[in-house]
Every structure is written in C-alpha cells, then in structure tokens.
Amino acid sequence: MPSCRMEKFAKTMFMAIPSVCNEIENLPAFLREWRKYKLTIPTYGAIFISQDNSHVLIVQRYSGNWSFPRGKMESGENPEECAVREVFEEVGLDNSNLIKSDEYIESKKEEKYSTLGIINVA
Fold first, then answer.
1. Position 27 in a domain
2. Which of 5, 37, 80, 120 is most buried by a 10 A CB count?
3. How high does pLDDT run on average in the chain?
4. Are residue 47 and residue 30 in the same domain, yes or no?
5. Which residues contact 11 (CB under 8 A, 6 or more apart)?
6. Taking residues 105-119, what's their average pLDDT?
C-alpha cells in the first residue's frame, strides 16, 4: 500500500471490513479518541551513546521524523522489558544486558510520558 496519512489508511480499512464499514461516518470521532488514548500509554526505549560521546543511534519513524529507538508499553510489561523489546524490534540489538534501571531520562510532553535508558557503547 502506498504511503498515506492515518485518516486515509483508517478509511481504507473501514471500507474493506464489512463489520465496520457502516461506521465510516464516525471515523473522525474514532480517530480523535484513539489519539487521546494513545497519549496515555508510556513509551520506553534507549539512547545509545558512543564512549567518546561523538555518536548516537537514531531511527527514522514512519512519520519521517528521527528519534531514539522507543515504543509503547504492552500489557504485562515492566519498563525495562518494554525498552529491551522495542530496541530489538526497531534495530535488532539485544540491550538486555546493557540497560540499567538507574540511568535514564524522562520526559513529559502534554500527557505523553517517555523514558529512555542511557547506554554507553564502545
């Protein structure tokens, strides 16, 4: 499927699924609620910094923006498990033996919480 905005993607999916296609007129409200809900889920990941502080690892998001590897916590996960899983999913690195629960940066933008572990690598 070609690249498109969330609204177009959702409309295409709604129209393709018989059980929800009659709800297409409610799509804007569904997307507003989904965006509000999405902000309530904290994100975890990691900042990989070279020993000499000259390089960091960043990934390009589907939106085109660049950020540190991170993602939303799944049900039943603790923050460290989420950070390890998300980094592995996004860049294929197993950081389970590198992440330290006492070395991290936290941020809050509007209602969205994000925590990134700091990992120095050789």
1. yes
2. 80
3. 87
4. no
5. 24, 27
6. 81
Do 80 and 24 belong together in one domain? no
CATH at 91: 3.90.79.10
pTM of the model: 0.71
pLDDT in tens, 64-92: 889 999 999 999 998 889 999 999 999 99
Structural domain for 67, as ranges: 42-121
Q: State the helix-helix crossing angle for 27-39 and 6-16, rounded to 10 degrees.
A: 120
| In a shared domain, residues 19 and 64 | no
For the record, the structure tokens of 117 come out as 């572990």
Model pLDDT, residue 122: 66
**CA-based R_g, the chain, Å:** 18
